[in-house]
TrEMBL record:
UniProt entry keywords in alphabetical sequence: Heme, Iron, Metal-binding, Signal
Residue intervals of the Cytochrome c domain: 38-111
Record flagged with keyword Heme: yes
Keyword Iron: yes
Coiled coil feature spans: none
InterPro entries tied to this protein: Cyt_c-like_dom, Cyt_c-like_dom_sf
Organism: Pontibacter toksunensis
Domain of life: Bacteria
Protein name: C-type cytochrome
Signal peptide extent: 1-23
Length: 119
């Protein structure tokens, strides 16, 4: 009889605990991930690895400034993939298509932050 009680109490407890679990399931455990910031962070990383040494912070160095004119995305991509003039080309084994997209987004931010400095 005592044994039966313990078993019932145990089952009741189990039911209670599992109920707690279902109630919590709808609550997100993590903050929603900010995809835009993630893309820009990757773009910055790529820029620092492959571009910064010749276009420091988007300004002129070994290469011309690229933060002072509204270069369209496809042109930047073409320049990076084919390397016009003195600039080396970067193929997909160095910079993937997705990384190149993020790099272009990062360059846009560089240009915007420069425009702000001028105001
Ligand atoms: C070894 C130095 C070097 C590196 C590294 C380099 N560039 Fe360049 N870049 C240049 C030079 C030099 C030019 C000018 C090319 C020419 O027209 O003769 C240039 C030109 C450009 C232009 C065209 C600018 C214009 O006014 O039309 C863009 C855009 C550009 N680079 C972006 C990048 C990006 C993005 C990266 C990184 C993936 C990068 N560059 C890495 C040297 C470099």
């Amino acid at each position: 009889m005592k044994r039966h009680f313990i078993l019932t109490a145990g089952l009741f407890l189990l039911l209670l605990l599992s109920n707690c679990g279902t109630a919590r399931r709808g609550v997100p455990m993590f903050d929603p991930v900010n995809l835009e910031n993630q893309a820009l962070a990757q773009g910055e990383k790529v820029y620092m690895s492959y571009c910064q040494m010749c276009h420091p912070g988007g300004t002129a160095g070994l290469g011309p400034a690229i933060n002072n004119k509204p270069l369209p995305g496809f042109l930047i991509k073409y320049q990076v993939r084919h390397g016009i003039g003195m600039m080396p080309a970067f193929k997909e084994d160095a910079i993937s298509d997705k990384e190149l997209d993020n790099l272009v987004a990062y360059l846009r931010v560089l240009r915007k932050s420069k425009d702000k400095e001028l105001m």
